[in-house]
């Protein structure tokens, strides 16, 4: 039954100069014939030239996803190093300015900038997107309605953006606040059915708000072209181990909610405005704050909420084969997130460039480095790309 919950992972990396620690608008040079030959459609530019995005294929389980994403990190890190640069996984760069970044020349990105102006130009953020296969679109909507409640908890596990333009923002996920400037972002409303969701999308298209469903940027959405639920709420975790644990948790949540629906058990719906209260707490405090249990009407520490969430999915993770990966979440709860480590380095050294150095180191931790570029990685990975 659990074979259906395939995974796909997308990670957006920063390209940085290891000497100045600044972002470098260098993606065009990296996406040379060699880069495209090795990775094909698994690597692509984003709107900002100092960003490079990688995407796994469709992975049947979390172990396959780990192999794929670790190899992708390793190959991209090797390609970038050949240009004298490094990659960083973090939701924002600690001090580089968005005004200094070059836009990738592409008709799609030019349209986005035309529509959103400075909001688009200043979107110097880096995220993690996780796709979980859900074949039935009606079931996908039902699961989306329920899983919205848990999104702030997972965001708290991923926080990696405490700095913006050289300033300690006081937030653990400043990326989330930058992204709210874009239209059609945040926690989605619930929908009564897939057809009601379709009517919403069709209305936006007919009234020229959007040209297709890709311009709906919610924290979770039914993907407009693939039979997946796409989770978009997270900062990109710095460590690959954290990325895999979070992907495994999203998969487990989808499988658990699907199991309840099969048993005709319902999940209490909560209004978007209530879930946004918990999201703000995740943005502000990460793992160190409290969240609200809306059923009980009481606060509790975020870590306690996440432990309850892990208990909630415990009966499906062995069938998914992801217990080892899920157990890593307890490590995150104990040691903190990337945002916590960045702040620790900054407080100990007083040097924001030292924060970048630590991010460079952690981004390739447990990743195969100096990968041989003699043969195409695309030959050994899944063919279908998200």
Question: What are the key terms here?
Answer:
single chain; 386 residues; alpha+beta; 7-stranded antiparallel beta sheet; two-stranded antiparallel sheet; 15 helices; disordered C terminus
The shape is globular
Ranges with pLDDT <50 over ≥5 residues? Answer: 375-385
Give the structural class: alpha+beta
Quickly count the helices.
15
What is the H-and-E element order?
EHHEEHEHHEHHEEHEHEEEHHEEHHHH
Radius of gyration: 20 Å
Number-wise, the strands total: 13
Q: Main β-sheet: number of strands, strand sense, barrel status?
A: 7 strands, antiparallel
Could you please describe the fold and organization of this structure?
This protein has 386 residues and is an alpha+beta fold. Helices cover 46% and strands 14% of the residues. The protein is built from 15 helices and 13 strands. The protein has helices at 27-30, 33-39, 62-81, 107-116, 118-121, 137-147, 151-158, 174-179, 194-206, 240-262, 272-285, 302-320, 323-335, 338-349, 352-363, and strands at 7-16, 43-45, 51-55, 86-88, 127-133, 163-164, 167-168, 185-186, 217-218, 220-222, 228-235, 290-293, 298-301. Strands 1, 2, 3, 4, 5, 10 and 11 form a seven-stranded antiparallel β-sheet that branches. A hairpin with a 5-residue loop joins β10 and β11. The chain is globular, with a radius of gyration of 20 Å. Residues 375-385 have low confidence and may be disordered.
What is this structure's SSE topology?
Layout: E1 7-16, H1 27-30, H2 33-39, E2 43-45, E3 51-55, H3 62-81, E4 86-88, H4 107-116, H5 118-121, E5 127-133, H6 137-147, H7 151-158, E6 163-164, E7 167-168, H8 174-179, E8 185-186, H9 194-206, E9 217-218, E10 220-222, E11 228-235, H10 240-262, H11 272-285, E12 290-293, E13 298-301, H12 302-320, H13 323-335, H14 338-349, H15 352-363
Parallel strand pairs: 8-9
Antiparallel strand pairs: 1-3, 1-4, 1-5, 2-3, 5-11, 6-7, 10-11, 12-13
């Amino acid at each position: 039954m659990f074979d259906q919950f395939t995974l796909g992972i997308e990670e957006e990396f920063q390209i940085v100069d290891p000497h100045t620690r600044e972002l470098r608008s260098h993606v065009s040079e990296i996406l040379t014939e060699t880069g495209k030959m090795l990775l094909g459609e698994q690597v692509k530019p984003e709107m900002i030239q100092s960003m490079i995005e990688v995407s796994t294929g469709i992975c049947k389980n979390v172990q396959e996803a780990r192999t794929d994403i670790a190899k992708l990190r390793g190959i991209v890190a090797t390609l970038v190093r050949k240009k004298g640069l490094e990659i960083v996984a973090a939701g924002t760069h600690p001090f580089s300015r968005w005004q200094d970044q070059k836009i990738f020349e592409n008709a799609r990105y030019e349209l986005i900038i035309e529509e959103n102006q400075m909001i688009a130009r200043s979107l110097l953020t880096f995220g993690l997107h996780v796709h979980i296969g859900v074949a039935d679109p009606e079931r996908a909507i039902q699961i989306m309605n329920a899983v919205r409640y848990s999104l702030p908890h997972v965001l708290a596990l991923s926080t990696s953006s405490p700095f913006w333009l050289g300033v300690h923002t006081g937030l653990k996920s400043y990326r989330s606040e930058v992204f709210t400037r874009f239209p059609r972002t945040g926690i989605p409303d619930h929908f009564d059915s897939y057809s009601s969701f379709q009517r919403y999308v069709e209305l936006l298209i007919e009234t020229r708000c959007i040209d297709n469903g890709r311009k709906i940027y919610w924290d979770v959405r039914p993907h407009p072209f693939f039979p997946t639920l796409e989770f978009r709420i997270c900062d990109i975790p710095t460590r690959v181990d954290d990325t895999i644990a979070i992907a495994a948790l999203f998969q487990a949540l989808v499988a658990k909610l699907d199991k309840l629906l099969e048993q005709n058990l319902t999940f209490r719906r909560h209004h978007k405005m209530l879930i946004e209260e918990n999201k703000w707490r995740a943005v502000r405090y990460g793992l160190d704050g409290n969240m609200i249990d809306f059923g009980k009407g009481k606060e509790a520490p975020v870590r306690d909420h996440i432990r309850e969430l892990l208990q909630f999915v415990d009966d499906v993770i062995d069938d998914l084969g992801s217990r080892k990966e899920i157990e890593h979440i307890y490590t995150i709860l104990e040691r903190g997130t990337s945002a916590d480590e960045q702040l620790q380095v900054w407080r100990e050294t007083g040097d924001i460039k030292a924060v970048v150095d630590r991010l460079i180191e952690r981004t390739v931790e447990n990743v195969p480095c100096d990968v041989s570029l003699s043969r195409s990685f695309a030959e050994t990975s899944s063919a279908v790309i998200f």
